[in-house]
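From the shared-data thread, chain only:
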Amino acid sequence: MPIDIKTQRKKPEPRSTRGKLNRARQYKSTEGQPKDISVTLMDMDSAIMYYFDNVIKPTVTENGEQIKVPTMYASPERWHSINKTGFMRDSKRQIILPVIAFRRTGMEKDDTIPVDKIDPLDPKLFYTFERKFTDNNRYDNFSVQQGIIPQREYYNVAVPDYMVLNYDFIIFTHYIEQMNRLVERINWSAGSYWGEPGKMRFKTNIESYTDSTELADRDRIVKTEFSVSLKGYLIPDAFNELQGPHTMQKYLTPKKLVIGAETDLSVASIVQTPDEGTNVTLTTQRSGGGGGALTNKHSLVQGTGITITESGVGFDGSNTLTQTIALDTTHSPTFPSLTTTGNITSQGDIIAVGNVIAKNYIVSSSVTFQTQSFSSGSTIFGDDVSDTHQFTGSVSVNGSLALNGVAVGTSVSTFDEYIRKTFVKKASSLLTNSTASFNAVTASAPTGLSVTNEDDFIFFLNGQYMEHDALQIEQSGSVFLLKVDTDSIGYFLETDDEIIAQGKFNA
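Structure, as tokens:
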């Protein structure tokens, strides 16, 4: 039966085809992702052209006038013409003077900066740096005092191929004086970084100068040749089209807020610890005062290390009895005992540091009962099913045990084994697009417990939880079947799906 497209949900991808997720890239930023960059051979040629036109600014003086010397990149045809005739002509066949012409003659790897490319289709070579300050993430004293840890920005920048490019230059002028002025300007910038400020700049070095003077068509031409070595780097545009990290990748760390609590009060000012030897005064009187004497008296008797005034004096209610209890730290104290005859009624708690020994315990309502041991006899707690008994520690049963009226006897280990059972299984095959089979057998529930059913299992499809409302289980011999209501869950099962079951299997 086809599934209604309106109600169909997107099924999670199988683990075998699932892409790796980098949560550092899962962010929202108003500035957006920085643009990828690329550095080409034309960028380095343009850097030289810019440096000559805007930094060196070659000029000569002729007939009292300052003339700007043009810089031209020589095409193969133009360079061939220069080598053949020894000068340059314009479109009207006139000799161009003065002028600077250059061309790129070759390039090679820069051995001083070796770069190892692991995989050209998936390069892993990049440098990570932190942006120290941004307008939206200022670091100030308020942030430090309030415990606000700034959100850091990290950038991955690809490591380029480092190259050494060689260029040949030729300068043409009318006079040697003009040539000298140009050579002085160019030589002064040797060894610096050529390029446009704020953009890519490359370190250059001028090798040597060769001077010559020629005559052409009754024109005197002064020519100087020199070579330039430029240390550049290349990042091709194709790098940004490959899958993986780009030439410029931005990462954000999560923001953190640390909340601390401070107080100007010392602990000693709010907690008072009694000094050693502090006495305790106990005043005993009959409720309401006055009246006849009590039939049964009670008395406090001092012990080793304990001093009690009026020790052993019985209180019968006829007169108020005041006793002071003092601790002698030079001895190991033995606390006094309370001896009484008759009933003891207390409106508050009765706390015994030692043992409470009695023939019978009668509980008139639900209690929380804690005890170490019983020497002998039977014990009955509660008289209604709503009563709750809580025990801290282990419960050891030497006789029979009944749960909900069903005798358990010596099968406590069976209950424990069943309750602790939980195994993980992977589907071995698909019988249909809605039924998966497992090579497993469900565990049988002991007598007195509910029969094992689908509520004792959880299922995951490609790592995503599958809702119980759409699932049924069935044990067919040694095969465990999972039946899926595809209309309810919203998708069909496929052969490359990974189905994991966790629950009460036998093994």
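The two ends are 36 Å apart (CA to CA).
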